[in-house]
Predict the structure.
Amino acid sequence: GDSVTQMEGPVTLSEEAFLTINCTYTATGYPSLFWYVQYPGEGLQLLLKATKADDKGSNKGFEATYRKETTSFHLEKGSVQVSDSAVYFCALSAGGGADGLTFGKGTHLIIQP
Amino acid sequence: DAGVIQSPRHEVTEMGQEVTLRCKPISGHDYLFWYRQTMMRGLELLIYFNNNVPIDDSGMPEDRFSAKMPNASFSTLKIQPSEPRDSAVYFCASSFSVASAYFGPGTRLLVL
């Protein structure tokens, strides 16, 4: 079945550092790919998405590129802030989201001032 | 719109009791999803509805769990009887067609 693998944390960085959170997937066909963020005590919020190969999703300085050849969707940000501290989830959906999401385990990101 | 609304936000109950979680999706959304989040298993899709009809309940752990969507603006997830291993955060999410899902704040359930 479909699955998502992402690096496990916690990942601890200093403010203004460069961020990469790796995500790879296994799926039949061509799924849509998503990054969600969860702040403490809150639900998940969509951060960005890409629906086909070579698409780049971007939002709030974060970006990720859908790489079909490597089945990856790594999340990057050039300069992180303390407010970026949260848990980040990579997810996929074969039906563009309409059939539910398969999530990775989540990566806890801690940004130190 | 107020977003996806879930109630209660926190629930503490004793083993064997019935638990009912409630969800009001965003108006106009035609898909509704129930997810469970635990440290051990992460986020799991339990069931989802399209136009109030259950489409896939293969993620429902066992017969103690049931979900209904009597109309477009309300859904329930019921656990009867509850067990300590059901302790988790339960999220409801909704979406319009194949657009991205919006999640509610979750219900944190503790079964003693």
